[in-house]
Inverse folding.
């Protein structure tokens, strides 16, 4: 038990370090091709969720959310991110749910001694869509009718454009997750002790 717990904590710490690097090193976690950027950090969260389980996946997702929230507060995010991501219901909660739901979904779909490719693809796409839908929903809910604090910005007029751009970004993000999660997570599940304990190959 002690070795298992130590191994899980070590891998959890490694995922946390990767998340922090992806947030602050340019072109690793965010690809600046639009006002909202294309995100790749959700793939790390999903991989953590399928390898470690939904609980630890939620922790890794929460780490991403908190770091993203801090970036928004310290004006190191994108122009729109500094406005919308200061709300933890947009920056933190969706990221926790990525790990929780993707990890739960994979645990429900995966079977020992069966190929894990399709469960990993489904979990990757689902986790990506959760991030897109909840972040967009939060923007529409909290900023769709304008912002009293930032009255100079007409969010009512801007929100449809934000939703269109982010929705367009959401498609390649989901495709990337569906491809990369199986490629990266399958060897981790096969060759790490944690993965072998969950699924006997």
């Amino acid at each position: 038990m002690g070795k298992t717990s130590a191994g899980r904590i070590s891998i959890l710490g490694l995922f946390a370090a990767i998340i922090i690097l992806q947030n602050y090193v340019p072109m690793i976690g965010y690809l600046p091709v639009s006002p909202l950027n294309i995100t790749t950090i959700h793939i790390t969260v999903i991989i953590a969720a399928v390898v470690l389980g939904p609980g630890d996946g939620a922790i890794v997702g929460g780490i991403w959310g908190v770091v993203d929230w801090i970036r928004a507060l310290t004006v190191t995010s994108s122009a729109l991110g500094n406005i919308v991501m200061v709300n933890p219901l947009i920056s933190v909660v969706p990221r926790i749910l990525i790990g929780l739901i993707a990890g739960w979904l994979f645990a429900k779909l995966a079977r020992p001694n069966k190929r894990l490719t399709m469960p990993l693809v489904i979990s990757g796409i689902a986790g990506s869509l959760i991030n897109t839908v909840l972040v967009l929903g939060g923007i529409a809910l909290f900023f769709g009718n304008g912002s009293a604090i930032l009255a100079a910005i007409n969010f009512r007029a801007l929100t449809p454009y934000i939703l269109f751009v982010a929705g367009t970004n959401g498609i390649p993000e989901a495709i990337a997750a569906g491809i990369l999660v199986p490629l990266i997570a399958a060897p981790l599940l096969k060759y790490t002790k944690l993965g072998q304990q969950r699924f006997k190959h």
About this structure: The longest helix spans residues 155-191.
